[in-house]
Every structure is written in structure tokens, then in C-alpha cells.
Amino acid sequence: RLGNKTAASSSAAAVFGGQAVVVSHDAPVLVGDTGYLDLQKNGWCGMHALNNLKGGDYVSEGACRAAARVCVNQLGGAVPFEELLHPRTGWLSIDVINVIGKAQLHIHVEENRLSPDAFADIALESDAAFLLNWNQKHWTVLQSWPPGSAPTHWRHTNSICLGAGRVGLRFGRRECSHEEVASILEDSSDSAGGVSLHRVTRALAGGE
User: Fold this and answer.
1) Distance between CA 166 and CA 155 in Å, rounded?
2) Which of 93, 107, 4 is nearest to 51 (CA)?
3) pLDDT tier at 41 (50, 70, 90 boundaries)?
4) pLDDT of residue 8
5) Does 28 sit behind a cis peptide bond, omega within 30 degrees of 0 on the bond before it?
6) Distance CA 200, CA 190 (A)
7) In b/e form, how buried is each residue of 97-134, taking b as 16+ CB within 10 angstroms?
8) CA-only gyration radius of the chain, Å
9) What stretch of H or E contains 109?
10) Structure pTM?
11) Which one is predicted more confidently, 12 or 143?
12) Which residue in 104, 126, 124, 113 sits closest to 54, CA to CA?
């Protein structure tokens, strides 16, 4: 995995050190193994979501901690570490996700949120991708599928799989229709007390 603490800190600091970040809505977000699945065992939902989004073992727990420290410093200590990286669940704030995304994954996650109701108007576009924020408790991934120029459906990936006490569309990995995604969003919202969609785009540091 990328991201021992030193490497993650230096990479993230470079991004926050004044480099321009160009967001591209055309380049694909997914570049890794389409069959990759990072299952969650002991929290760290944000890390697992980013790895599942990109299709590989890219992000480590150390990289998440280092990115959260960068954000604390950048915000002048106004936001405590625990609000950026939850100590028990590993939930990451969007600020932390974007430090990792720009430095290591070349992605940007939009802070602007879409409601589950707004999903009805989202087109099934080439390489569309979203991170789903379950009321600051959990992250999952939604992507148009298959990757490339002619997607036919969606794929939702939850790093928490089906099991004892975990039954329903929202768990594990599922390829689904637009209507089934709406059901997953409703189910997730009922479970967590709310859910929002955040679009993922390709970000190129320094305009490269």
C-alpha cells in the first residue's frame, strides 16, 4: 500500500503547498483491478472505500492518520483530529479524503452533497462515481458499470459484507439498476439517519 507516514505527509504537504489542482470530469476515476474488493474487519471505512473506488491496495491506515494531521495543521487547530478521522470507526472527513485523493490517487471528492431524492435525476454516464456518506458514520462507493464508454448499470460497494445481523441490499458488493440504487439509498438512510452522495472526479496536481 502507498502511504507510510513519512511518504503520506510529504505528498499531502506538497499538494497543500500551493500546487494547482485541475479537476477533470472526462478522465476515468477507476484505474485499478475491477475485481478488487477490500473488506472491512476493524473499522477504517474511509480507507476501504477509497481502495474499493480505485480498485487496489492504495491507501493505508498510516496515510489516513497523516492526512488528518495535515488537515489539523492547515485549519490551524480549529477542527480537532477526532472530527477529521473518527478514532473508532475510521470515518474520514472529505477534507482528509481530498488530501489523500490529490496526493496519492489523483481524485477529488466534491463537498457539495446530493440527496437520495436527487439521484433520480443523475444520468448513467461513463465513469460516473460517488462516495456515499452515511451520516458521518460510514462510507461506501457507487460507480457506473462497467467502466468505459458504455455503462449499463451501477455497482455499489460496501466494505461491510452480508452476515449475521447484516441483511439487505446495502451490504457487500452489488450490481444494480437505477431503481435498486434508490432502494439502497433509502435503506442506508434509514439505517444511518441520513445519506448523501458526493461526486468523485479526476484531479491532476499541477495541471499535469
Assistant:
1) 19
2) 107
3) confident
4) 34
5) no
6) 24
7) bbbbbbbbbbbbbbeeebebeebeebeeeebbbbbbbb
8) 16
9) strand 107-109
10) 0.84
11) 143
12) 104
